[in-house]
Amino acid sequence: MLTTATAPVTRNLIVDYYQVITAAVARLAAGPGGPAGTAGFAPGFDLPDLSDDVRQFFAAANATWRELGAHGGHGVQFMDLTGNPGTHTTKTFPSMLIVARAVEHIRRTGEPICIFTPTSANKGIALRDAVSRAIAAKLVTPEQLRVVVLAPASTRHKFRRDALSADPALRAANPLLRFGGAEPEGVKALGRAFVDAYAQQAYDRHGTTLWFSLALPNYLVADAARAAFELDAAPAIAAAPRWHAHAVSSAFGLLGYNLGRDVLEDSGRADGSPRPGFLLVQHLGTPDMVLNLRTGSFSRDGLPAYRRDAATGLWAQDADPHFPAVADDLGEVLDPTFYTHQPVTSPAMNDLIKRYGGDGITVSRHECVARYPQLRDWLRNTPCELPADPADLREWSIVMALTGVLNAIDRGLVPAGREIVVHGSGSYRDDDYAVCEPDAEVSTVEEIAAAVLGGR
Fold this sequence. Notes:
With 456 residues, the protein is of the alpha/beta class.
């Protein structure tokens, strides 16, 4: 049974749900970090008033709800979070709030801020977009707000030319750094080490307040708006309980959605029934959350035994429906966006699934390509329309999530009567952008310091 009309519904997830976001901040008891010049600096969660220029800044924070169709007796709804053409991902929403908090801090204190983020790609892309939008809206000057992005070489094809790279002065002030280490996830430790080592020096010698912005509350409060959007666009009913599906690395989006449900219930807007279950979708490169959910461990020993077909070279198994039936490579990285091993968020997601229901499934590129014609039909004439050739796809999050949903339905993992809501967290293609080359290659904190502070 479907619970919504067929007409798509669009909302601005920040402007329309500002009060939900501030309530989420209060529920988390989120507050500022250490003072300026310390490694733990973070501004408070105060947001600017919704003046015309602030609304202009937030204008790209749009999401659309639509029906995709049905499969195996299950309706499939789609929460499209890719409405910002500058990012094509859900990272728009937390990035805009991070920048809005920086703007408010700068207005109140006069202290300039340099946001520093390690990223696989999409967080960094979105923060660059948000900083450029804040400058364009004249909320801050280029001297007051900067952003430095540290990303692995594996995602070089994802970074796009943007307003910060087009202007020589802005490019110099907002460098894109490429990590030269062997492990992509090493950007997190290296970025943290740089801020720990240089925060005081950056402040004392250069007047720069470094903010290491990779922190869970920064993302949860933004993603809480998804629950309010669902309530407005297509509230669930008891006759059609839901599972929410999401391609995940650490599942920030689903945890944020759940925070939003808590906020709505606290306020009386939602009565707690029915809460959805959650379907985690991952790839073989980092199946850690699915492994931990299914086995209680992150060890790859929990993967089923595969056998290799000598004629085709494909790996196959039929022992566990939670993992690919067929794969080209048992360690394949379907999308380097998903690079987190042993995420600290796994216990929280496991608890939610134990309480409300749900499951986890891992997909392969082979399976995604097999489903691709159906997915392309579903997404035709939408902003997420897929290219004819999957080789031209540069962000696989939505294809992964939808493939996981279809596989889970076909393998009997989804209980009868459940409607599926797919969180469309990212999709972009080769012709959406021109690639931006990095400004420096770095492998040490000293090399980062030279790139960020050397010319200042």
